[in-house]
Amino acid sequence: MQNLPLVSVICISYNHAPYIEEALNSVLQQSYPNIQLVIADDCSTDTSKEVIENWIKKNPTVPFFPNSTNLGNTKTFNNTLKKVNGAYIIDLAADDVLQPNCIEEQIKTFQNTRFANLAVVYGNLELIDENNQFISHYYTDSDHPESGDIYKMVISKSTKICSVSSMIKKEILEKEGGYDENLSYEDLDLWVKISRKYDFEYIPKVLVKKRELNNSLGSYFYKRINPKTKKLHHSSYVILLKAYYLNKNKEEHKALLSRIKYQFMINIHSRNYPYIFKYIFFYIKVFFKSL
C-alpha cells in the first residue's frame, strides 16, 4: 500500500442494542491499521446507550457522543462528521458488520484507481437476518454494478448502491454539505449529488454484512397508511426533483423517467394518493423534456 491514510468510521446507533457490540468489534478487527472509530447514539429508547458505555469501558480511547434528544440520522451524522479527522469516511449502522478486509480493500481501490475524479468506492455485501443467518447477496449474478460516471444509472435505478458498503472522500462529502437534514433518508440524495460531479468505483468483493430486520428503514417504503412511510415518500420525491434540475440532456431525463415509474408503483402499493398524482404530473413534465 502506498501509504496509510486515516479512515474515520462513524457508527450511529438508534435502538440497535442487540447488535452494537458486533458492529463495533468488526471495526477493531480490521486488517487495515489506521482507523478512527467514533460512535454516536441518537437518543435510543432501548439499552443501546448502556451497551455502548459498557463497551467503551473496554475501549476507552473511542469517543462516544450520545444525543440528549432524537435528532434523526442525517443530523446526527453531520454533527459527528465535524468531529472526525479521517481523509476517508465510512457511515456504519450499528446493526451491520464490516468484513475484516473491508477497509483495506477500499483504500487499495482508491490508491490504484484508473479514475482521476474518484469520490466513492463501494462493494458487494451479504444480507443477514437478526440471527446472523445468510439471506442473499446484495448484488447477484444478474446485476452489473457500474464504475466511472454512473449518474445516469443512479437516477434510473439501474445501479443500486448500498451506503454501508461504501467509502467516500471526506473533502468531497464536506464540499457537498454532508447529508440533507430535511430528508428522512440520506443515501440516494448523496449519490445523486456526488455522481453528477465525480466518479465511483465498484469493488467485486463482499465487504460488509448488512442486517435485514422487520423494522428496518427499507421496510417502511411499502407500508400502507403509515406516517413514517409518507415522510420517506416525500423525501424520494424531493430527491427526484433535485435530479430533474441536475439533468443536462434528454438521455438523463429518459433515465429519470424509469425512477419516477418505480416510485409511482411504490406509492400505489402504499396507497399514498397525494404522491400518486404528484408523480403523474412529474412524469408528464419529464417526458416532454426527454423528447
TrEMBL record:
Gene3D superfamilies: Spore Coat Polysaccharide Biosynthesis Protein SpsA, Chain A. Pfam families: Glycos_transf_2. Keywords: Transferase. GO terms for molecular function: hexosyltransferase activity. The keyword Transferase applies. Residues 8-173 form the Glycosyltransferase 2-like domain. This is Glycosyltransferase. It comes from Flavobacterium profundi.
